[in-house]
Amino acid sequence: VSLGVMASGSGSNFEAIAHGIINGELNAKIQVLVYNNPDAKVKEKAEKLGIKAVLLNHRDFKTREELDQAIVEIFQNHGVQWVVMAGWMRIITNVLLNAFPRKVINIHPSLLPSFKGINAVEQALKAKVKITGCTVHLVDLAVDSGPILIQSAVPILDDDTPETLHKRIQVQEHLIMVRAIALLPHLENQ
Ligand code: GRF
């Protein structure tokens, strides 16, 4: 599968996908990475891996739709079939979803439908649940919603801070991200 990845942050999920491809676990190619934050660490990771990275700074666009249109053009020009939101911290619009219908996946650090939106890890701690986790799902227009592909559960420990918990969730994120991408060819005809 031909992937276009969108990321805003450190890029550990992006790196997990790239390693899955290098290891031969995934039969896929990352055609291009789009990132929106000039300081995002994901940029250096892409450079090291020899993957093309394009900065689209959301501050340069008047509307969400215009940003998404620019993303769509880059992905279409690079032959992208599947879009992976790997820590994309912007709300997306129909412009992206219409260009890639049922072909956009997202990773979220909670067991959806619990704890949607930002600060999902803090939300789980505050709610005092004993188990949280992470989810990869197909994206629809609402934030952190759409058919779930894979989830992984992570226990919350008594002395967890947002940082320690997020770290353990991320170990699971990297595993389910790779497994979800391996599933994509089986979803092609749905
Ligand atoms: C992940 O926790 C993901 O679930 C959330 O943003 C974070 C991105 O982490 N949506 P990274 O940039 O892949 O390290």
UniProtKB/TrEMBL annotation:
Sites marked Raises pKa of active site His: 144
Pathway participation: Purine metabolism; IMP biosynthesis via de novo pathway; N(2)-formyl-N(1)-(5-phospho-D-ribosyl)glycinamide from N(1)-(5-phospho-D-ribosyl)glycinamide (10-formyl THF route): step 1/1
Residue sites binding (6R)-10-formyltetrahydrofolate per the record: 64, 89-92, 106
Biological process terms in GO annotation: 'de novo' IMP biosynthetic process
Domain Formyl transferase N-terminal: 5-181
GO molecular function: phosphoribosylglycinamide formyltransferase activity
Catalytic activity: N(1)-(5-phospho-beta-D-ribosyl)glycinamide + (6R)-10-formyltetrahydrofolate = N(2)-formyl-N(1)-(5-phospho-beta-D-ribosyl)glycinamide + (6S)-5,6,7,8-tetrahydrofolate + H(+)
Cross-referenced InterPro entries: Formyl_transf_N, Formyl_transf_N_sf, GART
Residue numbers binding N(1)-(5-phospho-beta-D-ribosyl)glycinamide: 11-13
HAMAP family per the UniProt record, alphabetical: PurN
Function noted in UniProt: Catalyzes the transfer of a formyl group from 10-formyltetrahydrofolate to 5-phospho-ribosyl-glycinamide (GAR), producing 5-phospho-ribosyl-N-formylglycinamide (FGAR) and tetrahydrofolate.
Family under the similarity heading: Belongs to the GART family.
Protein name: Phosphoribosylglycinamide formyltransferase
